[in-house]
Specification:
Number of helices: 13
Low-confidence stretches: none
Helix content: 55-70%
Strand order of the largest sheet: 1-2-3
Number of strands: 3
Mean pLDDT: 89
Order of helices and strands: HHHHHHHEEEHHHHHH
Radius of gyration: 23 Å
Distance between the termini: 66 Å
Largest sheet: 3 strands, antiparallel
Shape: elongated
């Protein structure tokens, strides 16, 4: 087993990273090795120096890669060489002298309250299984703030209507319980009555019209289709509803730590980005209301 394969196994089985994340790490590492081989005739991780990495980063910049992408690639390479150094696969870590570029984080996009109200207008949804499913998918995203991967993995056993919560398996297989509202509970109950006639062979909660587990691209299409009817926001995705959940919760007085737990963030800094939206709202109110603004 070579060093990259060993590292990939480490990420998958010990760190429990998702397959998509591991694939991204592997591509970044292989890209560095490919550049080092073609430009400097270097084939071993021991031969990769800080100067080679700087040259690679400069090449990424010149070929149009954004700072955000470059930062992600640096993070991948840092993790890789940290692993190699810890396991004595390399004598030195060339990343110790690499400075990560800074980038401004854009504020999360979210729906306005009026847009959210319009999104759940019952006239938008046909009165059949597809309509009930699509309505519930949107409601689950907005009422719980869960991720797309978490929603597609939900099973009928994930729902506890007696205790009014949903069990979610998040990143790195971390389990959390999210409370559900009365509105969401009623929609789940109604949906399950439609669903039981569609399939008895799978316990996944959301199904296609053929009774199969729903898939990522279909959820994207559903969300984009309905968001397009209520907002002109250029960004339309399931994550927008996650951002909307967090922003509306914060604007209505929810504690930041509570939002952190519901979203499944590992640290508070990831949740604090939503305070910026609240601050922008306060600035606008201040500007409109203050006599000297």
């Amino acid at each position: 087993m070579n060093k990259i394969e060993s590292f990939i196994n480490f990420l998958l089985h010990q760190k429990r990273y998702s397959k998509n994340t591991v694939v991204a790490y592997q591509k970044d590492i292989e890209q560095l090795f490919d550049f080092s081989s073609k430009t400097y005739q270097v084939s071993s991780s021991n031969e990769i120096t800080s100067n080679i990495i700087r040259s690679w980063l400069a090449d990424l910049k010149e070929t149009g890669h954004s700072n955000r992408t470059i930062i992600r690639k640096i993070s991948s390479i840092k993790t890789f060489f940290k692993y190699l150094k810890k396991n004595d696969f390399v004598a030195h870590n060339p990343l110790t002298k690499i400075v990560t570029p800074k980038t401004d984080k854009p504020l999360p996009s979210f729906l306005k309250t009026e847009e959210t109200t319009n999104l759940f207008n019952t006239e938008l949804f046909p009165d059949n299984y597809i309509g009930k499913r699509d309505n519930l998918i949107l409601e689950v995203f907005y009422a719980t703030g869960m991720r797309l991967s978490e929603l597609t993995s939900l099973t009928t056993e994930s729902i506890n209507l007696n205790s009014n919560h949903i069990k979610v398996i998040g990143k790195r297989n971390k389990e959390r319980l999210i409370p559900i509202t009365l509105s969401l509970k009623l929609k789940i109950t109604e949906y399950l009555n439609y669903r039981k006639e569609l399939s008895e062979t799978t316990n996944y909660l959301f199904l296609t019209d053929k009774g199969k587990k729903i898939y990522t691209k279909l959820v994207y299409r559903i969300v984009i289709s309905y968001l397009s009817t209520v907002t002109n926001n250029n960004k339309k995705s399931p994550h927008i509803l996650r951002h909307t959940f967090a922003t509306h919760m914060l604007n209505n007085g929810a504690d930041l730590n509570t939002i952190k737990e519901i979203l499944g963030h590992s640290n508070l800094s990831a949740t604090q980005v939503y305070t910026h939206n609240t601050i922008e709202k306060l600035k606008n109110i201040h500007k409109q209301a203050h006599p000297k603004a």
